[in-house]
């Protein structure tokens, strides 16, 4: 600190606190640093929390194939799996519903699907399409019909812009597994990143939790 004369200090004292501060302005002192605000902790153990996920799925209830026979479902197999994924990832769900509803009867649905596939039809979707922009990952779910995705899935991917998105195929099936559907999406979605899909046998959806967990974990959507 610089030395001040006794007289200078007395004069400063007479001026009060402001005078003392002015008199000491020649003192050497460290600048006052602002107290840093603690950073918000970043959670690294929930990668899915940083990736918004949409499950867009088509599912059909009614009469379904079941180990060579038939059974009636109040909720379609693909819809069951979509709900299980939502429960694990907090994903949003969008159900793809046709304007012209498919028959409840299994054989009638098979006949209609055959006609649609032969004609490369694009069945109309009933509800407004979702806004895809906020999502990083889009899971496309459907049954496998005659070794292909139902044609309404083509309607959907033609109508929304999945460019730049990570796309994960999901199918429920009777006998044919994924049946090349992941390759179909890779060809159709050339500007998307189509990664390994999941195939769940329709009769086994209630017991598919472990397979779903393993698949979601492999894509870092759950821990």
- CATH fold naming: Rossmann fold
* Poorly predicted segments: 1-49
Q: How can the largest sheet be summarized?
A: 6 strands, parallel
- First-to-last CA distance: 60 Å
Shape: globular
Strand content: 15-25%
Q: What is the H/E order?
A: HHEEEHEHEHEHEEH
Full CATH superfamily name = Flavodoxin domain
- Average predicted local confidence, pLDDT: 85
Separate helix tally = 7
How many β-strand stretches? 8
Helix-residue proportion: 25-40%
Rg measurement, Å: 32 Å
**SS-derived structural category:** alpha/beta
Provide the number of structural domains.
Answer: 1
* CATH architecture designation: 3-Layer(aba) Sandwich
CATH top-level class: Alpha Beta
Domain Flavodoxin-like: 75-201
InterPro entries: Flavodoxin/NO_synth, Flavoprotein-like_sf, TAT_signal
Pfam family, one: Flavodoxin_4
Signal peptide: 1-23
């Amino acid at each position: 600190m610089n030395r001040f004369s006794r007289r200078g200090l007395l004069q400063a004292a007479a001026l009060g606190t402001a005078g003392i501060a002015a008199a000491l302005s020649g003192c050497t002192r460290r600048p006052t640093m602002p107290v840093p605000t603690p950073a918000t902790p970043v959670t690294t153990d929930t990668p899915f929390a940083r990736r918004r996920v949409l499950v867009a799925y088509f599912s059909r209830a009614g009469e379904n194939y079941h180990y060579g026979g038939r059974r009636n479902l109040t909720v379609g197999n693909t819809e069951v799996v979509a709900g299980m994924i939502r429960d694990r990832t907090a994903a949003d769900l969008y159900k793809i519903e046709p304007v012209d509803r498919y028959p409840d009867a299994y054989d009638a649905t098979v006949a209609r699907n055959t006609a649609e596939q032969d004609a490369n039809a694009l069945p109309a979707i009933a509800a407004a399409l979702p806004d895809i922009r906020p999502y990083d990952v889009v899971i496309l779910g459907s049954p496998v019909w005659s070794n292909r995705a139902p044609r309404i899935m083509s309607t959907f991917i033609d109508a929304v812009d999945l460019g730049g998105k990570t796309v994960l195929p999901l199918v429920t099936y009777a006998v044919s597994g994924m049946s090349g559907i992941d390759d179909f999406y890779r060809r159709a979605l050339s500007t998307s990143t189509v990664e390994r899909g999941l195939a769940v046998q329709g009769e086994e959806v209630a017991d598919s939790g472990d397979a779903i967990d393993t698949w979601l974990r492999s894509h870092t959507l759950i821990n």
